[in-house]
Amino acid sequence: MKRRDLLKAGAVGAAAMLMPKVVRAQCDPTSADIEGPFYTPNAPTRNVIKPEAAFARTLFLTGTVYYRDCDVPVANAQLDVWQADENGAYDNVGFNYRGTFTADDMGNYSLETVLPGKYLNGSQFRPRHIHLKINAPDGPILTTQLYFAGDEHIPVDPWASEAEEGRVIPLTNGDGGARHGVFNISLRDEAPTTSVQQGHVKGDARIVAINPQPLGAEGVILLSLKRAANIELRVFDVVGQRHMSTPPAWYNAGQHKIRLNNRDEQGLKLNAGVYILQAVFNGMVVDAKRFLIN
Ligand SMILES: [Fe+2]
């Protein structure tokens, strides 16, 4: 078998370990945060909210919306996003830095914006943040805010200081000066018991987690299979260039750990940024998750 450096494909069949007990992603529903005074309903349908004329560095935000089990994705989750511009100003007349959009049928979404600036709330700056409303179709709306790791105003902000770790995300510098971040969301809704996940091939293989994030020299994919299959794993960048793929290998049903590192098939370290891991189940792409390399 050809040596594969990023994903130890040689180890896919042989060293993928059946885990001693069921592994669940560390799971807490995403908590709510205040709506604040600057929400405007009926924002345009778009996931590129950075205006064309804006000069600030682009921030690519991606993630997956899950049900409360942090495992089953919410198909076609709805997102409504608003934020200040890079100088900390909201557009309360028009719809700059505002947009509504729908995640795909695997719960994956992407947003193109800029890092929001800070603004004064009384005598104190609020930390940089992005407001979101997220819901499963016809489900209750979660209103929350996203913060950025290392912001010195988080500890002194009455709302940000209450945010759990999952709402304070690290950013990675990517190509062309862009920043990348991953924000996964777990709604409080229970996963439906009868859905496309049940009996559908998409539910037969699930990338449960990719840890750690950002990925360093060593990491692990947790893969869950409802039935045995030939599995291939592929890594793409956000513009669709493939950097790695494993030859299909047979896996039994159950939970598997598969090693992952930050190198391509030639052994070269991948550039910092967001990548997409695809799980291919008997020749069909059945799950995809984004992960960060720094
Ligand atoms: Fe705000």
Count the domains: 2
CATH superfamily of the largest domain: Aromatic compound dioxygenase
| Shape call | globular
Strand content: 35-45%
Q: Which cofactor or ligand species appear? A: fe (ii) ion
CATH topology of the largest domain: Protocatechuate 3,4-Dioxygenase, subunit A
Mean pLDDT metric: 85
Q: Would you give an account of this structure?
A:
The chain has 294 residues and is an all-beta fold. The protein folds into two domains: 10-23 and 192-293, Macroglobulin (MG2) domain (Immunoglobulin-like); 58-186, Aromatic compound dioxygenase (Protocatechuate 3,4-Dioxygenase, subunit A). Helices cover 2% and strands 38% of the residues. It contains one helix and 21 strands. It has one helix at 10-14, and strands at residues 17-18, 58-66, 78-83, 98-102, 108-114, 120-121, 124-125, 129-135, 142-148, 168-169, 172-173, 179-182, 185-186, 205-211, 219-225, 229-237, 242-245, 249-251, 254-260, 273-281, 284-293. Strands 2, 5, 11, 12 and 13 form a five-stranded mixed sheet that branches. The protein is globular, with a radius of gyration of 20 Å. The model is unreliable at 1-25 and 195-200 (pLDDT under 50). Bound molecules: fe (ii) ion.
Which short descriptors sum up this protein?
294 residues, mainly beta, Immunoglobulin-like, Protocatechuate 3,4-Dioxygenase, subunit A, 2 domains, five-stranded mixed beta sheet, 1 helix, 38% strand, binds fe (ii) ion
Can you lay out the helices and strands and say which pair or pack?
Elements lengths: L9 H5 L2 E2 L39 E9 L11 E6 L14 E5 L5 E7 L5 E2 L2 E2 L3 E7 L6 E7 L19 E2 L2 E2 L5 E4 L2 E2 L18 E7 L7 E7 L3 E9 L4 E4 L3 E3 L2 E7 L12 E9 L2 E10 L1
Parallel strand pairs: 2-12, 2-13, 9-10
Antiparallel strand pairs: 1-19, 2-5, 3-4, 3-8, 6-7, 8-9, 11-12, 14-15, 15-19, 16-17, 16-18, 16-20, 20-21
Fe (ii) ion (FE2) binds next to strand 8.
